[in-house]
Amino acid sequence: MNPILTAENLSFCYHTDERLFENIQLSIASGKLTALIGPNGSGKSTLLRLLAGIIPTKQGKIFLNQAPISSLHARERAKKIAFLPQNIFPIFPLTVFEIIAMGRFPRKPIFSGLTQKDYEVIDRCMNIMNLNRLKNRLYSELSGGECKRTLIASILAQEPEILLLDEPLSGLDLPHQTETLNHLQKLSKEGYTVVIATHEINIVARFAHEFILLSSDHQIIAQGDAEKTLTIDNLNNAYNTSFWVGVHPFTKGLLIEVEQKENL
Amino acid sequence: MKQGHKIKFFFFVLLFLLLIPLSIFTGYEPISPLRLWQEIRQYEPTNNNLAIEIVLFHRIPRTLISILVGAGLSIGGVTFQALLRNPLATPYTLGTSSFASLGAYISFLGMNSFLSSISIPIPLSHLFAFVFAIGEVFFILLLIKTKQKISATLLLLCGITLGMLANAFISILRYWATPDKLVFMERWWFGSTQVLGYRSLIVVSIISIPTFFLLWSYSSALDQYTFDAEIAQSRGVNITKLQIHLFVIVSILTAVIVAETGPIGFVGLIVPHITRYFVGSSHRRVFPYSALIGSIFLLFCDIVSRKLFRTEIPVGIITTLIGVPAFLYILFGKNFKEWMI
Questions:
Q1: Residues of A with Cβ-Cβ distance to B87 under 8 angstroms
Q2: Quick check: A161 and A3 in contact, CB under 8 A?
């Protein structure tokens, strides 16, 4: 494994009277699709924000290729790491094109408009995410899947090396989840490092290369490939529930279910 | 620039250029271009040069002030709407104008008291207006920091309530004021560009012109911020710095305008909406266009204020008279969109 983003002795809490992360070690493999998995409230979103550098760590450091991200200027950091939150509520109407063009922000001087290069990048991002047809549509009029594609195209326009996505699959139906993961997998094959926080264990088990399993008490239970990470013991530990892990009859991948209590 | 934007741009510029001579030649004293031209041709210092005097010392500064104030109020509205992520937030609806008024009122009342002994290079009314305006803005920010989730309604109610408080204090001051001061204060409080001269013009332009370019330079950061605060942060926008800078800049702008002209309502509220309807949401376009449309709106209102009745009435009343139906049309018209509220 060739780590691009690593966290060393990472500690973090929002309020002084609570404990969230304590002394966490973590590394994200370069050019892979990594899934961050864990129960509600395990700190997946917080971990992504820490990795994105938009909230500062309390202790420990996060390194981007050996350089601590806290020492990078915010705009320089944005050229390497892009972040997409779970929900977005723009207050003013924007078209798909405008949203993608906004991704160019860290690479533009204050007063300059879009250059030839910007237009090329935007076109390329629209191509990758199949958005050419929707170019001039308003974001508020798009379907859930189209919104997600637009947002991913927008952070791609930043030309980052690392994409951090918080719940990119939430609110999507199965075909659209598959489509989104296909896109993300394709991006990782093109050399992007993609990290997604998600609850959709079964489907990401098929697509992701690396897994990080967080427990409800904010520990990292395991990191590595599917076979090593998504074991019954690890899952039971992380979720405090009894799991059942088998082989999917069609995909031959993992099939993960919660064990059904009989007298429930 | 796309074809559509070019046409819109020329349309608004044309409207703007038409209103300027109209504003110069409209008023209680009928002055036609011909009369002015004759007076200029036969100019003698000893003659009665009424037309020249009115145009030069009254109508021209008044027209220019209307342009600057209209533009200033509009870009202030644009900034507040973006910063508070709320299309109804303006320095007027959030009570900032009221507090600036209160500050100015206090300085007017104290004009012949100990306050006049303070010697500073800026007018006392501006300083007081600024201190009160910025105090109110930061008080609101302090209040909403205590809440987990900030709703548009909460913010507006907070601003409106504080505005009422300022108005209550203003009422006390009016009650205490001596009749001679009261007349002046009342005149000012209606919001007017009527009796201002070149001194006001200079003060307003020193503040509003640099402010425009300063705010314009924040366009892309504001685009990011109104889209999503976290994405903005991940792209390198320092949110806290952005908020503080812009609140201070707009408070100075609002305070100076209010101190000079009195509170003029509705410009900052409806002009940004009209602008976005024509040119979309990108602040790179919204700032210059709303400055242009804002000055057109205030020039137009100012001309109406001189012609609507036999005697002139303050332009602040006209902007409200026109602004209320216009805003109701935005709210209840068929082009109403969810994002507007």
A1: 91-92
A2: no
Inspect the interface and report whether the beta carbons of B234 and A83 lie closer than 8 Å. yes
Using CA atoms, how far apart are residues B265 and B320, in angstroms rounded to an integer?
6
Q: What pLDDT does B113 receive?
A: 60
- The rounded distance, in Å, linking the Cα atoms of A79 and B172 is 56
Whether B279 contacts B5, CB under 8 Å: yes
- The contacts of residue B242 (CB under 8 Å, 6+ apart) are B83, B218, B221, B222, B225
Q: Which residues of B touch A111 (CB under 8 A)?
A: 217
Q: Under the phi-then-psi rule, with left for phi > 0, alpha for psi from -120 to 50, and beta for the rest, what region is A259?
A: beta
Residues of A whose CB is below 8 A from B221? 105
Nearest of A80, A11, A139 to residue B236 by alpha carbon: A80
- Contact criterion met (CB below 8 Å) for B317 and B128: no
Contact A93, B230 (CB under 8 A): no
Closest residue in chain A to residue B1, using alpha carbons only: A113
Q: Which two tokens stand for residue A115?
A: 């250059």
Selecting from B231, B282, B337 the residue whose C-beta is nearest the C-beta of A83 gives B231
SS3 category, A25: strand
Is A54 an interface residue toward B (CB < 8 Å)? yes
Give residues with Cβ within 8 angstroms of B253, minimum separation 6: B72, B75, B76, B207, B208, B211
Select the residue from B217, B225, B226, B227 to test the A interface by mutation, using most A Cβ atoms within 10 A. B227
pLDDT of residue B1: 46
Give the residue from A139, A158, A138 showing the smallest Cα distance to A84.
Answer: A158
What is the pTM assigned to this prediction?
A: 0.87
Which of A184, A261, A210 has the alpha carbon at shortest distance from A30?
A210
Please name the amino acid found at residue B131.
Answer: V
Please report the ipTM that was assigned to this predicted complex.
Answer: 0.90
Res B15: pLDDT: 94
Q: What Å distances lie between residue A167 and A4, A87, B147, B301, CA to CA?
A: 21, 9, 26, 51
| Chain B residues close to A140, C-beta within 8 Å | 337-339
Structure-token pair, residue B181: 């001061």
